[in-house]
Design goal:
Elements (H helix, E strand, L loop, with lengths): L2 H88 L3
Length: 93
């Protein structure tokens, strides 16, 4: 075999490798997009129910966070008010 034959064989081998390395991600992306579209299609019927559940979860989370953080906010606000009154009466700025 001559150098020309090896060059041609290497070019063919590189073309086959490139084809294989691009077809695998291409197939993965193709079926991934099809699956995503299928999920979106299936969820359209159930979306009002899902939205209402998300609203309930958001409302419960907001109420819980208000209960947890309100004592800390009240203490901080009281401390700031006390510091303001003390600096006012002591003449500091």
């Amino acid at each position: 075999m001559t150098l020309t034959d090896w060059t041609n064989a290497s070019i063919i081998l590189l073309a086959v490798e490139a084809f294989i390395l691009t077809i695998i991600p291409g197939v993965i992306f193709f079926f991934g997009i099809r699956g995503t579209n299928r999920i979106i299609f299936e969820l359209r019927d159930k979306s009002p129910l899902i939205r209402s559940k998300f609203r309930e979860v958001a409302r419960a989370t907001e109420q819980a966070s208000q209960k947890v953080t309100s004592p800390f906010i009240n203490v901080s606000a009281g401390r700031a008010q006390l510091d303001g009154w003390l600096s006012f009466f002591s003449g500091r700025k």
